[in-house]
Amino acid sequence: MYVLSRPALVLLLMMAIGLGFYPLVGDSYYIRLLTKIMVLGLFAMSLDLLIGFTGLISLGHAAFFGVASYAVAWYIVKAGVTSLLLILPTAIGASAACALVIGWLSIRTAGIYFIMITLAFAQMLHAFFKDQKYWGGTDGFNFYDKPQLVFGDTVLLDLSNRLTLYYFTFAILVSAFVFLIVLLRSPFGRAIQGVKVNEGRMRAMGYNIRHLKLISFIIAGSLAGVAGFLEATRTAYVNPELMSWHMSGNVMIMVILGGMGTLYGPLLGALALTLLGDNISSMWDHWLLIMGAFVIAVVMFLPEGIAGLIEKTANRFKRKPPPKEETEP
Amino acid sequence: MSGFILETQNLSRHFGALMAVDDVTLSFERGLVHAVLGPNGAGKTTLINLLSGEILPSSGSIRFKDYDITSLPANEVSHLGIGRSFQKTNIFPNFTCFENCRLAAQSRMKGVFHFFKPALSYKRINELAEKGLEMCGLTKRRDTLAQAMSYGEQRQLEIGMMLATEPELLLLDEPLAGMGAEESLKVIELLRKLAKEHTLILIEHDMDAVFAVADRLAVMVNGRLLETGTVAEVRASKAVQEAYLGSDEEGH
Ligand SMILES: Nc1ncnc2c1ncn2[C@@H]1O[C@H](COP(=O)(O)OP(=O)(O)OP(=O)(O)O)[C@@H](O)[C@H]1O
Ligand SMILES: [Mg+2]
Predict the structure, then answer these.
(1) SS3 letters across A261-296
(2) Domains of chain B
(3) Per-residue pLDDT tens for A49-85?
(4) Are A221 and A104 in contact (CB under 8 A)?
(5) pLDDT at B252
(6) What gap in Å lies between CA A66 and CA A86, rounded to an integer?
(7) Is the Cβ pair B94, A328 closer than 8 Å?
(8) Which of A226, A174, A176, A179 is CA-nearest to residue A64?
(9) Around Cβ B60, how many Cβ atoms within 10 Å?
(10) Phi and psi angles of residue B219, each rounded to the nearest 5 degrees, phi first
């Protein structure tokens, strides 16, 4: 049962305030970097709904990220449309539709087979976009225009403006977080958490497990689609690698590194991994080595990820010991 | 409608060459307590698994009231009003007692699209959960994590969760297994109370408990039905005495 702990709440508020005010003082390099981290954080958070809360270990989550990105590129490059009101819903809709089909087929399997089948579907999409000239092939698309919200003659929101994009991304991230918190407290949210813990008993009590899993899969896919929309908008560039298994693997590492089933952990995972990559990627070969070592260290010494470390540290500073019920028997 | 709430017709289930349930034709009368007895490995749990839709039969059929439930999945069987408890404790260890029962009760909500209102704001579901807790005697443990409780208490919770779904027919797979004497007495008392308004199918090794609550007995051996009848009839049966009751107490 998901409870946002007090230390996590304090940390999140501090992060939100920091992110909210940073552009007033920060330089443009870091504004861009933070936008990227927020987009990846949203992407990782959406995967946490599956891995951390529903017990569905999907290794093909990049499919939904990539499909939404291509929807953005298609509108701008092929249709010459930049209307945010058209592009964003279509991008989300495309991801949701993919999640419906892939999910409907995948959730019939469990365990390692589920991991493999989600991976296979994402690779199929990857291969499709890579093969099709119409979709830009291996090179993908570069574009210059970015989605805009226009009312009459006035531009209300121009996402080619760096600051506008930053705050737009920030607002979406906060909304998605609040949405997921609300969702996890709802009957549906409690039910998927029950599925993760004990699927058999849930079925015996009358729950339709497939429906619950499929809906969760679609919600997670749609949120990944929002992240994909932001990614394409941010970089004005899409290519098939957006839905490759590297991407799916990376976002999974963010979730595990940050702490699955914590919702804010994956945000921290995205932050850690991106900063790490950004600072040492100049030494290309070594950077992957260092990254690998870091991931292994976290998994071995911090099985609950960065979020787990934060909660543990915060608990140590509390005067009261944790309530009895929370200790293992 | 006949006085039978549940009937099986030549019901069989094999695992490979093993006939776990072998050609069982049985009728359960509405409103009575039926005990299913048999040595270890007799196929009692497999029978319950068939009745509750947990597994599919290899052949034969099952009727519940007016429905043919032979090939219904467990979740649909549950919604017809058949509740079950498990021999091997089957709960949500890292949830509180209340949440275990609440989740059970929540299964009675229509549809799955309840995304925004907090789960705890549904009064009727909360009431059902509290009622389940109270009946199984765990109200005091309401906010304790299930994994932090004694084995006996977890067994009680197992029953509470079943009751929170408000079933009409209860399938109880060894509800007393692993309970202390005092807890057992409480649960036997509960079974007596439940018997007034429900039909019970009870698997139990504890003969005192069986004789205390059961109206009808069915004895299984090696997947086959050996004998059925009232308690007195089955106790008097030669076959049963030879195969089961007579030899020793068959405790475990
Ligand atoms: N899923 C399964 N796969 C293979 N064999 C099984 C399976 N389930 C049960 N069996 C076998 O079927 C037989 C009947 O098992 P069952 O659990 O129904 O017995 P039981 O009467 O409940 O015994 P107990 O009193 O020990 O609970 C046993 O030999 C068991 O090993
Ligand atoms: Mg058994």
Answers:
(1) CCCCHHHHHHHHHHHHHHHHCCCHHHHHHHHHHHHH
(2) 1-81+168-252 (3.40.50.300), 90-167 (no CATH)
(3) 999 999 999 999 999 999 999 999 999 999 999 999 9
(4) no
(5) 44
(6) 18
(7) no
(8) A226
(9) 18
(10) -115, 130
- What is the mean pLDDT for each group of 10 consecutive residues in chain B (252 residues)? 87 96 96 94 96 97 96 97 96 97 96 92 96 95 96 94 97 92 91 94 90 93 92 84 59 44
What's the complex ipTM?
A: 0.93
Token pair recorded at residue A114: 């589920």
A314 token code pair: 């915060």
DSSP A143: -
Q: Are A242 and A252 in contact (CB under 8 A)?
A: no
The letter for the amino acid at B201 is I
**Which protein residues touch ligand 1 with a CB less than 6 Å away?**
B 15, 18, 20, 38, 40-46, 87
Q: Which residues surround ligand 2, an ion (CB under 5 A)?
A: B 45, 87
Task: Give residue-wise pLDDT tens across range B184-204.
Answer: 999 999 999 999 999 999 999
Taking the CA of B16 as reference, the closest ligand is 1
Chain B residues with CB under 8 Å of A191 CB are: 103, 106, 112
b/e string for B92-122 if b means 16 or more Cβ within 10 A? bbbbbbbbbbbbbbbbbbeebebeeeebbeb
State whether residue B4 is helix, strand or coil: strand
Positions of chain A with pLDDT lower than 70, given as ranges: 280-285, 318-329
**Best mutation target, A53, A107, A199, A201, to test chain B (most B CBs within 10 A):** A201
Q: In angstroms, rounded to a whole number, what is the distance separating the alpha carbons of residues B250 and B247?
A: 8
| Extents of the domains making up chain A | 27-243
Pairing of strands A148-151, B4-15: unpaired
**In whole angstroms, what is the distance from residue A213 CA to residue A107 CA?**
7
